Amino acid sequence: MAMDTTARTTSIRQCDLGDQTAFTDSRALTETLAAPLSAEDQTAQSMPDASPTKWHRAHTTWFYEEFLLGPASGYQAFDDGFRYLFNSYYEGVGPRHPRAQRGLITRPGIGEITRYREHVEEAVSRLLRSGLDDEGAAILLLGRHHEQQHQELLVMDAKHLLGRHPFGTAYTDRATNPVPSPVAQTWRAVEGGVVGIGHDGNGFAFDNEGPRHDVLLQPCEIAERTVTNEDWLTFMADRGYDRPELWLSDGWATVQSQGWRAPLHWRDEDGTWLVFTMSGVRRIQLDEPVCHVSFYEADAYARWAGARLPTEHEWEAAVQPVSHLRGQLLDPGRLHPGPAGTHMIGDVWEWTASAYLPYPGFQPAAGAVGEYNGKFMCDQHVLRGASCATPSGHERVSYRNFFPASARWAFSGLRLARS
Amino acid sequence: MAMDTTARTTSIRQCDLGDQTAFTDSRALTETLAAPLSAEDQTAQSMPDASPTKWHRAHTTWFYEEFLLGPASGYQAFDDGFRYLFNSYYEGVGPRHPRAQRGLITRPGIGEITRYREHVEEAVSRLLRSGLDDEGAAILLLGRHHEQQHQELLVMDAKHLLGRHPFGTAYTDRATNPVPSPVAQTWRAVEGGVVGIGHDGNGFAFDNEGPRHDVLLQPCEIAERTVTNEDWLTFMADRGYDRPELWLSDGWATVQSQGWRAPLHWRDEDGTWLVFTMSGVRRIQLDEPVCHVSFYEADAYARWAGARLPTEHEWEAAVQPVSHLRGQLLDPGRLHPGPAGTHMIGDVWEWTASAYLPYPGFQPAAGAVGEYNGKFMCDQHVLRGASCATPSGHERVSYRNFFPASARWAFSGLRLARS
Amino acid sequence: MAMDTTARTTSIRQCDLGDQTAFTDSRALTETLAAPLSAEDQTAQSMPDASPTKWHRAHTTWFYEEFLLGPASGYQAFDDGFRYLFNSYYEGVGPRHPRAQRGLITRPGIGEITRYREHVEEAVSRLLRSGLDDEGAAILLLGRHHEQQHQELLVMDAKHLLGRHPFGTAYTDRATNPVPSPVAQTWRAVEGGVVGIGHDGNGFAFDNEGPRHDVLLQPCEIAERTVTNEDWLTFMADRGYDRPELWLSDGWATVQSQGWRAPLHWRDEDGTWLVFTMSGVRRIQLDEPVCHVSFYEADAYARWAGARLPTEHEWEAAVQPVSHLRGQLLDPGRLHPGPAGTHMIGDVWEWTASAYLPYPGFQPAAGAVGEYNGKFMCDQHVLRGASCATPSGHERVSYRNFFPASARWAFSGLRLARS
Amino acid sequence: MAMDTTARTTSIRQCDLGDQTAFTDSRALTETLAAPLSAEDQTAQSMPDASPTKWHRAHTTWFYEEFLLGPASGYQAFDDGFRYLFNSYYEGVGPRHPRAQRGLITRPGIGEITRYREHVEEAVSRLLRSGLDDEGAAILLLGRHHEQQHQELLVMDAKHLLGRHPFGTAYTDRATNPVPSPVAQTWRAVEGGVVGIGHDGNGFAFDNEGPRHDVLLQPCEIAERTVTNEDWLTFMADRGYDRPELWLSDGWATVQSQGWRAPLHWRDEDGTWLVFTMSGVRRIQLDEPVCHVSFYEADAYARWAGARLPTEHEWEAAVQPVSHLRGQLLDPGRLHPGPAGTHMIGDVWEWTASAYLPYPGFQPAAGAVGEYNGKFMCDQHVLRGASCATPSGHERVSYRNFFPASARWAFSGLRLARS
């Protein structure tokens, strides 16, 4: 989560009206995303991996308080107890509330969280007007990207909660878009050779995207579109969830222990597959990207299809020449993957074959703020791209998202590759 | 929960203005008890054994809908899904939401629950005006006692939730009463011989309180007051929680696995014992009855004191001659045990030595409404009396409350006996 | 496990040749029962509640060492580590090996256990020749009854282990007896009134069988034979395992979580019910007593049959007039219940409706040897009678066996009663 | 576990007397390693990840029966049930006994396992005399390497079992070697550039060691010796187990939940660190390689030391020029790491920074025999080198061992690297 040197050097020049606007807009988007959720919705925690909406709203606020305002002279904390309640996992900051019990923090209520957000926003704005040094500007920028990450988590977590409700309660009443016709699968050639991988230093990046370094690739092909619901139904019809030879050993064990028969949020109603979306339960759309599948499922599908997942290096090499990274922008009224094939990436995060490991020469930032990406580099899997729930401006070719192999509550799909 | 024959026979005569008033008052008390709790407080579930406030408000309403209104011609259910959401454990009614996931039911929100309550109350009132047959009148009476039970559960569960908050958030701002001087322990003799046990048929009783039957008792003595916090501190100072010889085998295992060092809601702050109350955290009051102890702890304490717990028969025989059963009435602004010794019972439920088993000849009511007391008669322990959180009028000499041996979140204490 | 005063007083007179013979015979029976089991069989632990054969052989030896020989001057312990390894649960003796890890104690091997047994037997015999005081004689007697208990546990535990083997490996090659014709169900009347319950002081008894005391009974009837396999198949055919209304709440939860469809050791092979016996897998015999059912199942069956389980008081009152308590004696070559109806009791332990609680005035013995029955008097259920695996001479009308409601690995069945 | 094409092609020429000798010697080593273990030792399973000695002896035999003899005309299986009991995880072969219950398979006993081994060895020898085709020869070779793997597992698992015994029972009475003087830490430079990684096709290799492919490395340095016990004690003295900033997030959680304070098999006796070895418990030897540490611990140590773990590519590039790979050969009488610094590798497996993933172009073998390495390529970590328990001839520069990050029961240590 610490930014690289380039971001740190250039940030001082951004401490102008644009900073204030970007900060204000970023803060407002969180509230827009939370608005359809009641006090009750915002408080519940549907599983230990997910957090209440209210907690995301407070934690993204605490981040500014802890790392930007705390050191500023004269800042009066809104509530001293919030440092305990809303620290996520920064060991360097001190003890914190257990993650699995975030749903029991009924107080402060959502009204007080709103006041907390306003209190901190005013203090940050004052600080902006009085000017920021390089480090402060870097933290401000980091705080914004941090909040963007939590905006997507807020959406994922809310969808997981609402999806566990027996009646498929909707987040929004707005209907989904009309569906274009399907697009055939085609392959793009990726040349082999030495390619540069990682963030190039222009603009913001998280620490895990660097240092940029050379990697030797072998030639391969990568699919032009992600795998669709129609593809997935074919896999299911071919007994994909019943054939151990398609699965990693841990994946097969998970299929059996969890009883997986389809992606998360799918529901079999008398033989018809429905899906819970943020607009409620409806029929599967065949040409949408399959979403809410685990790494295990993505890997098994690729094996079944006679292909494989791309490595994150192959993915990055394939995408770098694309000028328009993304077809779909975040639309709080339509948090659902669009039809596949209309664009290269941006509807669903794409599982890769790569383990989430440090790039050669990786060093986290010093201090508690550096406790972010590095300490999770173990037994997680890289996803690339962005999703329909990723805030606009948060996507990057070098972006490395990561989840455990069994996670399905992110907006995660897959794209095939072959040697 | 089914009532005995006497209640059924007499209920027809109560179908008058008094019924309407009792019904209305009973419904209002639930809302009074819930009022200090926010939408967030009312939604969270602190453990599988506890339920959200909001769920209690809805379940006590569903009970009337299911058993009283459902059969009435022309009644329009408020929401068909509520039958699934707010059935507690009546297998005969159909499938129901898993108990451990009640905290995930963020919708309906508390506002809709209020409307649900009003909808059902109006329908019941209409039904009352049109007159009830015997069975209907019996269900109405049962529904009121059922709601009273849940009023106490609502308080217990809310206290458990608030007590898990790291900062000891209070339910009420009202201070606790001044403390009288302590009362010395004295013993009351209970004569042996054949005594009648169980409800005598005058007024309402749950099915588990009958049939009334004769039991042969041996003479014993029973303490005039319950065990106090001061007594308990002496037990603790004598290493009561460290001596396996004082404990039942399962109790000792629980002490070790749970790390029990004091009653639930007690907190050791630098060597001083504080207690979380509904009015917030404060110092222990020495002459209050000890509260929030498990059967295991009560049993160990009695062994340490050279005494034992009374059986439920001894308890009932000792209490029957008392004209004023209870000193303390439910006060929603002060949900805390009063000072011991001012009265015989009513501050804390009292663990007995008796397993919760059917009385000879016990028969539950037919149908789903009979799925109440009978099916829990296994590995539970009887508590007698009433507590500061028991609604006024709900207490009875024959009342049999029950909890598992490890439960501590009820307002549970103990009274000693000796042969 | 401590004996009552009567046993203690009379024991000094038994310190003669009869004592030596009884001791020797009792020790030999353990070895006879263990003989068909290999070193491997004797070492494995099939579940935390069961112990390895080898452990039973050592623990029953340790008991003499700890409580009889230890205090005797000049006794040299066989191995100091055995005090840690083979103490069962006597907190007063000191730390001990965790119960659930008894299967990891591969050393000492069975050969060394045999030498340990011989070492202790020689020391006891020497002590017997030199004479025992009252307390020593009482411990000797207690040790014999203690070993008898473990003989039955050894058989139960070995059957459980062998029964978990996928191929139903037999303990003995000897075939089971021919089967008599079935016996019709008849009822014996039990008069009400005040009856004396508990051991009368003649001969040995465990502490939990006393003090003898009066109980007021209401008249009832009790079945002349236990429930048979044929009865049980009728219950199963009537969907007994599928109807929640027949079950206690905890029982129904257990049926579902454990997937119970039949008694333990039964196996459905293409629609035919087979049973694993100590002689291997064979077809169900219709007129044998049903065996290896839990309290939950016994209770559900009784409810289904329109009857109930007898209380332990009713059981004892009904059996007291019977001169010949038991038809079947322990036969190490045939550890299987005989055909029902040929005798009153003795094939299977019979679940009662009674919780396992202390009799009025119960006091355990002082010291570690008293840590037996008392500390388990919580959430267990009384079984009466004896089984085909109970050593001859160990049965008593006042005997109180006990297990948790879900236990099925004992030789446990049931007998019906009705008011 | 399937071998690569080269091995398959050349194997036909090895089907001579050398094959018979290698087969016989390999089989004999398993028996030599098992010999100090009693029937009881060979039967117990100390944790789900470990298997009984007896099971290893049978499984390595079953492998020949299933994959080599089964297809051969006229072979009579020793016991049809063994296919169920001794299949490890080959889904293609059919159902199998649950892994966590291997300790309950008391039958067949170790005597029958010996006869099973002899039966299969005779059949294989007959087959060898009659000649093998290419595929048969490849399976024979694979069977030998498979058995070598299980020889090390047998030792690891036995050590884990004996190490859980409260008294530190020894596997062998033979004392450990005298200790040489410590060796200073020095660094070997590894040049960057494109290097070939993976097995070169000369001789046997497992499928996961290929295909050989080019990798682009950056220059680095790698330590000449592994980390020693003395180094580890310094880490411990510097509160290495108490400082969250040194640990991966999952590692820190494991340290806390498992209470790790030192490597597995270390014991703190009144402030002195002892270690359980196969020769029993003795004091820590300072200049021995630290052993029985997890990936989490290795990673934390490296961070503390201001270094890092090498990647498997760096490790292989550094070791390739070494002519004598290994200083220590397997000695069944001394299964303990030798003093560090006397040689490059061979005492302890060395954790690398690399996740266990397929090499580019990896393809498992067809059929059930291919269900080996590929399906475990998820959330495991590569170890390189060999250990004191690796059979002679089983080590290879390209060998890829793998375990989960929390595993400590292998003979696992670490070597530092730095960029």
Concise account of the structure shown:
The structure is a homotetramer of 419-residue chains. The first copy, chain A, is 33% helix and 12% strand.
Please tell me about this protein's structure.
4 copies of one chain form a homotetramer. By secondary structure, the first copy, chain A, is α+β, with helices and mostly antiparallel strands. Helices cover 33% and strands 12% of the residues of chain A. The first copy, chain A, has helices at residues 5-10, 17-34, 39-43, 53-69, 82-85, 110-130, 134-164, 229-237, 249-258, 295-304, 312-319; strands spanning 187-190, 193-197, 213-217, 220-223, 266-269, 272-277, 280-283, 349-355, 381-385, 401-403, 412-413, 417-418. In chain A, strands 10-9-8-11 form a 4-stranded mixed β-sheet. A 3-stranded antiparallel β-sheet of chain A has the order 1-4-12, with helices on one face. In chain A, α2 packs parallel to α7 (134-164) and α4 runs antiparallel to α7. The longest helix of chain A has 31 residues, at 134-164. The radius of gyration of chain A is 21 Å and the shape is globular. The two termini of chain A are 34 Å apart. Mean pLDDT of chain A is 90; it is low at 1-14. Chain A binds chain B through residues 38-44, 46, 54, 81, 84-85, 97, 101, 103-107, 109-110, 161, 164-167, 169, and chain B through 38-44, 46, 54, 81, 84-85, 97, 101, 103-107, 109-110, 161, 164-167, 169.
